[in-house]
Amino acid sequence: MASRTLKLVVEYDGTRFVGWARQSNGLSVQSVLEDALQVITRESVRAEASGRTDAGVHALGQVVSIHLNHSITAAKMRVSLNALLPDDVAVLSVEEVADGFHARKSAKSKHYRYTILSDRVRRPLLLRTAFHVPLPLDVAAMDRAAQALVGKHDFSAFTKLAERKPSCVRTVLSASVCKHGPLVQVDVTGTGFLYNMVRIITGTLIDVGVGRKNEDCIAQILASKQRTCAGFTVPPYGLALVEVHYAGDLRV
After folding, report:
1. Pairing outcome for strands 131-133 and 151-154
2. pTM for the full predicted model
3. Which of 17, 75, 128, 130 is most buried, judged by most C-beta within 10 A?
4. In sequence order, what E strands does the chain have?
5. Which positions are annotated as active-site residues?
6. Are 207 and 228 in contact (CB under 8 A)?
């Protein structure tokens, strides 16, 4: 049978994984997915994700593309994978797509969300998915500050110095901070992201929320291109890849 391309949407709790990518130092999401694919197809199938999530980072809608020769239907593939995958990884959907589709190269933008628990009391059921800040946050000021991120900028100040790329210019399409009960969500959608970019953005916005930084600070930090001018890097467990957008999507 001729080679086929399938698009998978995968959700996972990243707590016990070293990240998406297969590595020698621990269990990855890619490795458990590829191992399950080999059991089903008896083929060596490489799973290409829209982007690498780091250790401890979660995904609500990671997109994965695979190429295979097996004749299994998309519907049966989803059922078979979920029967083999561990409880902290699930395939939400599988569909057959054009051969030119590539989860990373075809992506137009990605939506990340960082969740903060803003409450004096910790919530045990949120320990793996929200960063606890036991202080009141000025969410309106955080949201106003976040608007300065929108557009095409050099985000050198918002990435780990050792991981800087030759070009740190990236485009943020939207950024917002909103509150739902005790939870504060920082949502950022962009065409591409640098290492730790959303986590450093969130740490900077928390500094704004508690009054350590002025809400007009973002433009100055961007202009400085200095990591030391931005806020702290929040832990990975509050971050999730929410959705990946492709050509033809309503929200691209």
Report:
1. unpaired
2. 0.94
3. 17
4. 4-12, 48-49, 58-68, 89-97, 107-118, 131-133, 151-154, 169-180, 183-190, 239-246
5. 54
6. no
Q: CA dist 99 to 33, 74, 140, 244, Å? A: 20, 15, 45, 19
Per DSSP, the three-state class of 32 is: helix
Q: Which residues share a beta bridge with 116?
A: 131, 184
**Where do the domains of the chain lie, and which CATH numbers do they carry?**
4-97 (3.30.70.580), 108-246 (3.30.70.660)
CB neighbour class for 152 (10 Å; exposed up to 12, middle 13-18, buried from 19): exposed
Q: For residue 74, what are its two tokens?
A: 């998309």
Please calculate the CA angle 54-141-187 and round it to the nearest 5 degrees: 30
| Structure-token pair, residue 224 | 């400085």
Reported as a single tens digit per residue, the pLDDT across 30-82 is 999 999 999 999 999 999 999 999 999 999 999 999 999 999 999 999 999 99
Judged on CB neighbours under 10 Å (0-12, 13-18, 19+), 168 is: middle
